[in-house]
């Protein structure tokens, strides 16, 4: 039993986990907001390739469930003084007007630009930062856009 206690104490001593050091929950290049971590990727890709890119990091394209998250992500997409059109994780490719998030969560919030979604010419994926209102638009999934990934925060437990 004493050996186990010594092992635990030594492990904690070398874990870098103490009361004075900040606990990184998201990792380099990721920003925490709420219970999620987000990463803005300024590399234009079609929606499906953007989703695959996010999955490589253990996440998905961002899902939006509140106005607060919408404004946070909108801010991430503002580069060089202007908003860049940006993929988020919603699509209706399986059934028109049945919007789904790529992470499987419920589609319970939207911020559509006026007149959207209009499904013009086979638009089945959702971009944000569209138009003068800087809101959402349904777009062709093969359009190359920047994108926002999301993943769960890592929880570091210190004793």
TrEMBL record:
Span of the secretion signal?
Answer: 1-19
Keywords (alphabetical) are: Disulfide bond, Lectin, Signal
| GO-annotated molecular function | carbohydrate binding
Residues covered by the C-type lectin domain: 33-150
Q: What SMART domains would the database entry show?
A: CLECT (SM00034)
Q: Which PROSITE patterns match?
A: C_TYPE_LECTIN_1, C_TYPE_LECTIN_2, PROKAR_LIPOPROTEIN
Q: What is this protein called?
A: Galactose-specific lectin nattectin
Gene of this entry: LECG
């Amino acid at each position: 039993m004493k050996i186990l206690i010594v092992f635990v104490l030594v492990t904690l001593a070398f874990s870098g986990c103490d009361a004075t050091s900040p606990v990184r929950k998201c990792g380099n290049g990721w920003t925490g907001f709420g219970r999620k971590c987000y990463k803005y990727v300024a590399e234009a890709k079609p929606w499906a390739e953007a989703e695959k890119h996010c999955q490589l990091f253990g996440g998905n394209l961002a899902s939006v469930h509140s106005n607060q998250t919408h404004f946070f992500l909108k801010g991430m997409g503002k580069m060089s003084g202007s908003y860049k059109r940006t993929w988020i994780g919603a699509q209706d490719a399986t059934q028109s007007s049945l919007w789904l998030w790529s992470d499987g969560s419920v589609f319970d919030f939207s911020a559509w630009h006026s007149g959207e979604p209009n499904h013009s010419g086979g638009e089945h994926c959702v971009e944000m930062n569209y138009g003068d209102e800087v809101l959402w638009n349904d777009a062709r999934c093969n359009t190359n856009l920047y994108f926002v990934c999301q993943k769960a925060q890592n929880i570091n437990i210190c004793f």
